[in-house]
Amino acid sequence: MRKGSSIVFLLVIFLLCSLLSSAVQLRAWMVGISNEQAKIIQDILEEDFTPKTGIEVLIDPLPWADSDRRMMLAAASGDAPDIALMSGLLAAELGIRGAMVDLKLEFGDDFASHIQDSFPNAFRTYEFQGAVFGVPFQMAVSAMFYRIDVLQEMGLEKPETWDDVRTMIPKLQSNQMNFALAYGIDAESFRDFQMFLWQNGGEMYTDDRTQSGWDTPEAIKAFTEYTELYTKYKIPQVPQHFEAFRRGELPVTCAPHWTYANYTIGLPELEGKYTISVVPGTRRGNTINRTNWAAGTPLAMFKATKHKAEAWTLMKFLTSAEFQKRYTAMITERIPGVFYFPSTRSAYSAMPVPQEHREVLLQIAELSTTPPFAIASENVVNRYIQFAINEVVVQGMEPEDSLLRAAAQMNSDLKVKIAEYNRFIKQYTGK
Asked: What DSSP letter does each residue of 37-100 carry, written as one string?
């Protein structure tokens, strides 16, 4: 090789090495996904994202246990990833402390355009006073499952409203059957209560999120109707969704989102004998309000990132219809028994389920809403309502008395938290 050619060759190699060494590398912590799911995400990124953008991504899956504390420590130390999949309420809490990027403010029209395919109600959990600290990556909802064969045999139709449910329950119980709510009396029962609360026109907080919304007539009515299903109508406090549904003992039941995969994989003998529907609703005037609880687990961006533009490009890709469709299909293909609820409307067409089920699941996601973020700790607030439920169902306390006491406890906690966070939140409230 001649000297000139050698120099050119070495120069090309040097430039290529320089470009490779200067490629942007992003870290993404993703809570609640398995190693198998992380591998699928990494494969898609390496095949479709990195070659087109030059952005390399390292996915680090984290368990839910202790994840909030780890995120907080990372934010405080400055050693945080670029983006993270985290609980929505944590994204908002870290956001008002100044640790997360306000995506709406930072990316403006591009943000508004990108989220057009997302479910609007998912954002309530990571929004505060107009600031938005996340984009939904995946959804979690609940549905009503019912045995077509059992209802036909009994001459019953699926219930459309809670009045229909209350009418149906005595007929079921006379045949050693029953109806069940999704979460029963356990640590997650606040989700069922919120469904009744929203359907009756109530809210968790006042509009400014500084006071409890549980002391309103709407909330008291909702709590009474909800607890009476246990105290008056004797539905199961700890429903056995899988076995009781299989045996026909719970021919109509609301159940969490993961139940769909359990039934599909574990009950092949019931194929064609059951289906799904939106949850029963509350009649309000000439319409039926079918609002249900949902969670939209978000991707959020840490302010400490040195690559905001690239991190936003990654977030847009992971929450795009293109990625969500492919990921939805690959999850079912590679991990039997795992079922994924996409965060974009368009991706529901790729769900590997019967067409009528796709339509229902999309309708459920459209009708569901996430809890609003407030300064009070979610764990504390949920404990207040859990205590109130137990007081009524287990101890026999009057629903109104118990709920009003829970509202007072929530107001006390809010007062303390608002004072504690005042220096953070005044930039959003203008106070």
From this structure: HHHHHHHHIIIIIHHHH--EEEEEEE-STTHHHHHHHHHHHT---SEEE--HHHHHHHHHTT-B
